[in-house]
Each structure stands twice: as structure tokens, then as C-alpha cells.
Amino acid sequence: MSNENTKTYFDYRVRFSKHGAIRYIGHLDVMRYFQKVIRRAELDIAYTGGYSPHQITTFAQPLGVGIESDGEYMDLRMNSYISCSELKDLINAHSVPEIQAISVKKLPEKSGNAMASVAAAEYYIGFKEGRVPGCFSKNPEEITDSIKRFLDQESIILVKEGKAGLREVDIKDRIFSLSWDTEENCIHAIVDASSGYNIKPAALIELLLKFNADSMQDNSLMIYRADTYTRDENGALISMGDIGSDE
Amino acid sequence: MKNFWTTDLALSDDILMKIEKPERYIGHEVNAVYKDPNDVRVRFVMCFPDVYEIGMSHLGIQILYDMFNTFEDVWCERVYSPWVDLDKIMREQNIPLFALESQKPIKDMDFLGITIQYEMCYTNILQVLDLSQIPLLSKDRGEDCPIVIGGGPCTYNPEPIADFFDMFYIGEGETKYRELMDLYEYCKDNKLGRREFLRRAAKIPGMYVPSLYEVTYKEDGTIKAFTPKEDGIPEKILKEVVKDLSDTYYPMKPVVPYIKCTQDRIVLEIMRGCIRGCRFCQAGELYRPVRERDVEVLKKYAIEMMKNTGHEEISLSSLSSSDYSALPELLDFLMEECSKRHVNITLPSLRIDAFSLDVMNKVQDVKKTSLTFAPEAGTQRLRNVINKGLTFEDIINGSTEAFKGGWNKVKLYFMLGHPYETEDDIRGIAELANEIAATFFDVVPKEKRVNGKIQITVSTSFFVPKPFTAFQWAPQCTKEDFISKAYFCRTAITEQLNQKSIKYNWHDADLSVLEGVLARGDRRVAPVILDVYKQGCFFEAWTEYYKHDVWIEAFKKNGVDPDFYTTRLRPDDEIFPWDFLSCGVNKSFLLNEWHKAAREEITPNCSQRCSGCGGAQFGVGICFA
After folding, report:
1. What are the tens digits of pLDDT across the range B565-620?
2. Residue B614: which CATH number?
3. Are both B323 and B191 inside the same structural domain?
């Protein structure tokens, strides 16, 4: 351990995408996938000590199966310096087109780990053809109005299934933004994604439909995570990819 | 939503979100090969008829996939058995089975190649054909159907499944596929049709086209004659052999699955064949002669494959790795290279001696791993019958060394039901296990024993005689015999002084009986397999899906007596269903081995002395070392 404390490491944050057929790959398999990318790219990754050392990587909020994203994050601890652009190129050269590094930042010495610092996630949520519920078949003004009324409720109760059974939580203050995107024809949402308070996009839509006395059809959503956010020193939401430098 | 990609997958999002492990069906893996269909002339789909995680772990398919895709005019893709959940949906919605890469229906391809590794997958072959919407019987297939070709160890008795295949490739796949592809393209260009293609293919060495042969039977049900129906079709088919293992195809860029597979590692095949000649072992005969891959070539492959896959583990593959001549050099090299890259080495089961213990000590955690011995029989007498050259002294000396080195787990593998087995031999299993435990207590002082214990696991499987072995004449035990042998073994173990240190496992007897019928069956077994499949049975290698009653029913219905194929002692001069094939080992050699077994006489291994099995006709390997 003493060795680890004195050694210098270089921490990087990789923002990556997950698209197309690869949206059916689960989170654990994505983690295993990156272990292999790192080996193929022959990156000078740091390993933990002990009898079965493993690569030091941290992933931000896991993405559900079936969801696409351009806002996934993985932190890497390297033994030696590498420029952000070189690291990005190496990862992409050894990865499939559906998973690509979008940007890489070198992290300042004391930044929280990727998982613990997640504050929010931004989603675009659309309905599949033929599965648009009645309340979303209306014109944009009416949809916008119904979202506004939804948000104006005194409380928005989500029933979460936890280890101790079902519990009710008020998520009103944790919906940071919710609106109808007229250009993309889908819902735009920024919601809490912090560990323990994560709001699943499908659960949010279900509440919204229930409020409109509507119900969700099976597998009717297309969900795209645009980004994952953390908070800056003033408590404002900033993209996790804005932490660190490009050097 | 422009950021939500549309996909070209054969299965809808609704299906993929509903089934278990959708990753099995989407392709897109690292190193999967994609070609433009307009640039190729032959579409080949390679199938392992079991679930993806099993099929993807198979080295043979990776070798052939790599080979085919080096052919510019061929695009080789993969397919595996859809799991029961997807199977049901595909039948309900009439979705044709598709290749993983292009996601296009298999019925539109040129070839469906099926590797047949174990008998219990026969019904899965029918599942794959059925889901592909290809007629199950070769005779019902038209010009628009792919050519269905089988390969792998079970094709050394292809007869029970001959009706389902258009042709078989007998032997090692690296040698003759180029010629076969050329012939196919020629026949296609000249519109010669499927029948003519098969007729011409049957003249390529190693190719067997069942429809061109006729079987007649004697009154007692045994085979009278097996003859070609046409002139120019060979009477005897000799297996194909790779002459130089260091100069052939090897998958330097194997496909890397997303999902965790049974073999989630690099597999380095160090040699083919085995010098040992155990009389029960089919692989030991089929892959003769022993051929080694050059150690320098293997070093290069290992590094290349580590770079191309990113796997965190590498394992060596062969039938008997301890017999590989450059094993110390290869392991030294791998240990150095792998530790640099944080890649683990998994060792194959090595003969336990000072060298292997030293290696195991270096690459594995002694506390976690166990020693493995496969004496296969409990007494020296019976080990002589089966020609297993592992002695009591080997086992006790190996264990002694290992216990000194800190090991305290031992696994022992045996078979019950060998020819000439007596109760003494079964009791010998218990006594050997007891002796190993006693050795532990002698060697390791009390204060050094972890939890004060030694764990010995004895596992027995039931012996099933296989074609092309010395025991192909042998009667197989009945189910009742098997079970009483297992009980006898269990009782004998409980009578031992150290019985508390010994755990006993045994296999399912029903499965072994059926495996016996399929292994030594003939063409008359095919309707039984077909019936069982039509009753909805497949995935029978998975015990939970094996339905014994359905098989018994199907045997009755088709007037097939399973005992005819299993428990009958075959006379020396009987014509076997597989006699028209040759794996290079002569029947006269095997018969002599069968007689020597009765006399408890051993035969030296290939490195000690040539016994003239016939393998030398290939002109390569240990026969000329």
C-alpha cells in the first residue's frame, strides 16, 4: 500500500457512446468489453494489488439494456502520461463503431470517482411508431401544457422498489428539466441520476402518462441518454465531460 | 429521434427486449468478419448446434471461420442454436433462423456447415434445420436449399444422422474445403444442379455423400453390405489430415464475444493426436498420428492473439499436453509474456510430476486449485485392460509431492462399466481414494493442514463404447448394471477409513445408454431421432431438457431395439456401420487391441515403440520422428 501512495498516477475520463445493436449489451459486459479494449490498445493502465490484480477503472451510472447513449463515462488510472487525443485514438482504433470514445479529459488530481460524482442524466425519450399514447398524439402546445401541469403538482410520487420493499419518494425536486422537444418529436428530460436517487426514464414517463389518465404500451419507448452530469463547486449541473483538461 | 440508431437485426426490438441474453443473437463482436455480399460467390454458415456460449467456445469453428474468410470469394458466418425462449417465438412468428453477421436467413445461403461434437446434440441439428426452414431430410431438399454438410468427431459414425445431411466432411477441415468451394462454384456457373455437385463432391478425398451409398442388412439385423450406388464413387473414405500443423490456418483474430462464454480465453492448440492409445478413447484414435506445432510458431501466435483479442486468459489445448516436447520452453515464454500483460495462464490437465507442480505453483493459487488425476480404472489389472499407462506409484508419488507443496484438494476421474470390470476393480476406486487421503495425513503434519483436511472428489462416468476404438466390439452395460455399479462404488467408499475426506459424484445412466445407441447406431436410428425431435425435444445435452420417456416411446414406435446397439457383444467379423470410413487406424489393429485387452496386456505408446496401427500411412508426425 505504501508503494501505491507514493506512486504517481494519471487519471483520465473517457466519454463514450453506445449505439445500434450494442444497446442490447448489458452493463457488466460493457465493462468486460472495455477491459479487453484496454488490453488490445496496450494501454499502460494501473492494476490493483493482491493475488488477482484488476485494471483500475470506474464507470458512471450503468445504462439500461435497450437504451442508446452519447453520455457514458469511464475513468481510467494510468501508470504513465498519455495525451488525451492519443488515448482517444487508441481506444477508438480498438473498439467497434457502436462504442466510440467521444472525448477524453485528463482529470485534476483530486476529482471524485466517476460513479460517486454523478448528479443527473439527460435523456431524449420518444415513442415507437404505432405506440404513441393518446396524450402524446396531440399538438405540441397541448403536450407542453400537460407537462407543465404535471410539473406543477404539489408532489410527484414515484414508487420505488428497494431492498426493504416498495417505498414512495417525492421526485418533484429531482426532475431538473422536463419538456417537449418539437424538433425531435420527443420528450427531453434532465433528472437525478445520483447513486441511490436515480430516476429511470421509463418510470418518469409512466408517471406522466398516469397523470394524463393514459397508460404505457409494452416496450413503447426509444430512450437516448445525451449526457451525464455532475455538480461544480457552486452546485450547478455541468457535464461530466467538462471536468479536467485536454492536455 | 436521430440519435437512436435503426439496426439491421433480424429480430425486432420487442423480441430482443423480451428474451434472455439478446447478445447471443446480434453479432457485431470484435473480429467478426463482415463482407459485401456482392463481392463474394459463396455464402457459408458455420453452425455449432448448441447455445451461443458453448458454441463460441469451440476452437474448431474459429479455425474454419478464419480459414473460409481468408478465401476472397467466400463469406463465412456463424449460427448457434437459439435458446428455448427464442425458439418458441421464432416458431410462433415464423421467423427464419439467420446468420449472426449478415442477420440474413440461412435458407438463402449456399452452405450450412454443422460441427457435431457430441451425440446428445443430434436433436439440436434438427432444431437448427427446422428453424432455418430447410427440410429435415436431405432427400426432400430442392435446388434452392443450402448444402448441409457435417463435420467433427461424431461424423466418424455419421449413419444415425445420415438422412439429415447432404454430405459429410471426414477429418480435419483445413485441407479440402478450398477444393470443395471451387467445385461448388464450377457447378453453380454451369448450372449442374445439386445432385451433380454432390456426385462430384463424393470423389474428393474425405467427402461422404450418404445418398450415394446403399446399406443391406442380414436377418440378424447386422450389416450385410455397404456399397456405392454408382460407379466411380469410392467404397472407402479415408479421413483428411493436416500434414504440417505449423503451416496451416490458425485464427490469429478469433471472434471476441461480449457475453461471458464457457471458454472466455485464448486457446492455443499445441498439438493434435495423442501417443497414449487408451483402448476406450475415441479421440486418441481419430486424431492419429500425433503432430506437434512448432514452438516458435506458437510463441508468435500467442503474442498476436493477446494483441488481437485482449483476453485476460490463455490456455493450451491438446489431448495430452504433458507429451508436447517443448512444453517447458513454451510455458517459460508464456509465463514471462503473460505476467507483463496481466494475462493469466490456465493449465490443461498435466501429468502430475515435479515439473508440472512447479509450473502450477508459479501460475496458480495453490489454495484454490486442485490436483487432477484420471486413472479411469481402480486397479492396475483393469488399467492394463484399458491400456491406461498411469500407475499407482505415479498417483501416490505425484500426490506426495503436491501435498508437500501445499495442495489439499484432489479430483479423481474414473469410468464404470469397462469391459472385464469386476467388483474388485470398483472397490479399487474407493481404496485408491483412501490411499491418497492416507498419504496426505502421512505427509502433512497436523499443524500444517489447512482446516485439518484433505478434500478428495471421486467422479465416475459410465463407459460408452465408441467407433474406431479397441472397445467397439464391447457390450455396453445396461442401465441397471450402471446404477448398481455406482451404488457399489458409493458403498465401497463409505467403508473406507478416510471416507469423510472423500466426496463421490456419478453421472446420469439414462443419458449414457442413449449416447451408446447414437454412438454405434446405424441408419435405422434416424427415424427415432426425428420422432423425438418432433415431440419437441432438443437441448438434450442439458439434462433438464432430456426426456428419456420420449426416447423409449420413439424406439418402440419405430421398432428399434436400443439393446441391439448397446449391450450386444459384437462378433470379431461383424461389419460395423462405420466400416466404410477410415481414420487411418486399421480395423485389424483395433481387433488385436480388443483381444489384448482380454489378456490384460498393455501396448506401448507411440513414443516408446510403433505398434503399427496404420496411422503411418499419412506419412507425417510421430510415425516418422
Report:
1. 999 999 999 999 999 999 999 999 999 999 999 999 999 999 999 999 999 999 99
2. 3.30.750
3. no
Contact with chain B for residue A96, Cβ under 8 A: yes
Q: Which of A61, A57, A81, A92 is nearest to A9 (CA)?
A: A81
Are A143 and A208 found together in one domain? yes
Q: Are residues A138 and A77 in the same domain?
A: no
A127 and A229 in a single domain? The answer is yes
CA distance A33 to chain B (A): 6
Boundary (domain end) residue, out of A53, A84, A114: A114
Angstroms from B303 CA to nearest CA on chain A:
11
Q: Is residue B353 part of a domain?
A: no
Same domain, B118 and B33: yes
CA B400 vs. chain centroid, Å, equals 33
Task: Say if residue A126 is in the same domain as residue A233.
Answer: yes
Q: Does B167 map to a domain?
A: yes
Query: What are the chain A neighbours of B260 within 8 Å (beta carbons)?
Result: 29, 32
Element (H, E) at B428: helix B423-443
A22, A66, A94 member nearest B17 (Cβ): A66
Helix, strand, or coil (residue B612): coil
A237: amino acid identity, one letter: L
Are A145 and A61 within one domain?
no
Chain A residues lying within 8 Å of B309, measured CB to CB? 36, 39-40
- The enclosing domain of B212 has a CATH number of 3.40.50.280
The cell 490484480 sits on which residue? A53
B23·A29 Cβ contact <8 A? yes
> Residues 108..167 of A with a Cβ closer than 8 Å to B: which?
124, 126, 128
The reported pLDDT for the residue numbered B317 is 94
* Closest by Cα among B292, B352, B4 to A124: B4
End-to-end CA distance of chain B: 67
CB contact under 8 A, B18 and A219: yes
Q: Are residues A72 and A129 in the same domain?
A: no
- Closest CB from B1, B307, B342 relative to A40: B307
ipTM: 0.94
Nearest CA to B126 out of B578, B557, B515, B537 is that of: B537
Q: Which range of residues forms the domain containing residue A177?
A: 120-238
Sole residue written with cell 485494471 = A55
Instruction: Name chain A contacts of B13, Cβ cutoff 8 Å.
Output: 66, 128, 219
d(CA B567, CA B569): 7
From chain B, which residues contact A within 8 Å (Cβ)? 1-5, 7, 9, 13-14, 16-18, 22-23, 26-28, 30, 256, 258-260, 306-312, 341-343, 365
User: A–B: how many Cβ contacts below 8 A?
Assistant: 92
Amino acid symbol at B567: T
pLDDT for B573 equals 97
Shared domain for B66 and B171, answered yes or no, is yes
Euclidean distance between CA atoms B26 and B46, whole angstroms: 16
- For chain A, how many structural domains are there in total? 2
**Chain A residue with minimum CA distance to B312:** A36
- Rounded to an integer, what distance in angstroms lies between the CA atom of residue B80 and that of residue B48? 5
Nearest to A96 among B3, B13, B28 (CB): B28
Contact B23 A186 (CB under 8 A): no
Structure confidence by residue, pLDDT tens digits, A131-161: 999 989 889 999 999 999 999 999 999 998 8
Domain of residue B281: give its range. Answer: 265-348+584-625
* Mean pLDDT computed over A230-242: 93
Cβ contact, residue pair A20, B5, below 8 Å? yes
Instruction: Please indicate, yes or no, whether residues A128 and A146 belong to a single structural domain of this protein.
Output: yes
Nearest CA in chain B to A19: B5
Spatial distance between the Cα atoms of A218 and B611, rounded to a whole number of angstroms: 69
CA angle B80, B86, B90 (to 5 degrees): 95
Flag whether A245 is in a domain. Answer: no
Verify that B117 and B178 share a domain, yes or no: yes
